[in-house]
Amino acid sequence: MVLSVVIPCYNEEPNLDDLFTRLITVLDQLHLTYEIICVDDGSRDHTLKRLIEYHHSNPMIKVVNFSRNFGKEIALTAGIEYAKGDAVIPIDADLQDPPELIQDLILKWQDGYDVVYCKRRSRQGETWLKQKTAGAFYRIISKMTPVPIPRDTGDFRLMDRRVVEALKLLPERHRFMKGLFSWVGFKQIAIEYDRPPRSKGETKWNYWQLWNFALDGITSFSSLPLKVWSYIGLLISLLAFIYATFLILRTLILGIDVPGYASIMVVTLFLGGVQLVSLGVIGEYLSRVHDEVKRRPLYIVRDCYGFEKDTHKN
Ligand code: UDP
Ligand code: MG
To answer: Do 128 and 17 share a structural domain?
Structure first.
């Protein structure tokens, strides 16, 4: 049995020492072969240098170095592609995903589950606004998509090789990993834990990035925003038709009513607004279609440390 641990790292220098100490202690107790794949997502601090030093002292730590910052979802995708293990565990570098849980993950895996995901019982060290918006996002997306995306679940999970091979078959660019993990299916089970605050450093996501992340999730897994406009349009046309009938009858019975300016303005502005919103929704999907058809490589690796030369070409 080989276990691959995948760590996306972006400016995580202050966390690496604690991370590797805790992770390697846990992995050594498991008595199985392991590899730790660190994807350096274009860090601007000394993360890469430190990772290479770690690789030299422990060849089981392997490093993939991106040519620039491509974002967490893509770093994770790359790590999963490079992983050779029978089971793969993505884990955050900031110790918000306690490595000690890996033992429980392995136990469930040995019970025959293909995916063991970790559900947060609580999230500490996150602002009220982030918790509320995250909660709302999971509620909304679960109503919008037929794919069951478990709530309060991050990327920290164990995946069997079968699941990894299935994930690798999904070629899309806008990779909302939580959705993709669920979409592939397989026998899944949750274990619960309390999510500690980030150990050191700061979160790499601001609200604008989170908003775009949410949009990626929704547009990748639901076409409801695209379809709902035909129904809203239909409803508005119906109301407009009723109003028009009323206006015609009133004109026929009471004669020509000169003002009329207000109603025309209201209807025009309202319809203009509806049209702009619906155009915007189409634009969101269209921009993603545009990205998909370009078929650019997802990421570009500058160099690798610890992988055999012929296995990966980019
Ligand atoms: N990360 C990354 N690329 C990015 C942003 C983040 O590889 O562009 C990594 C980061 O180093 C960490 C993980 O993704 O290991 C989670 O990031 P963070 O802790 O900032 O997110 P949060 O926990 O606040 O959602
Ligand atoms: Mg974090």
So the answer is: yes
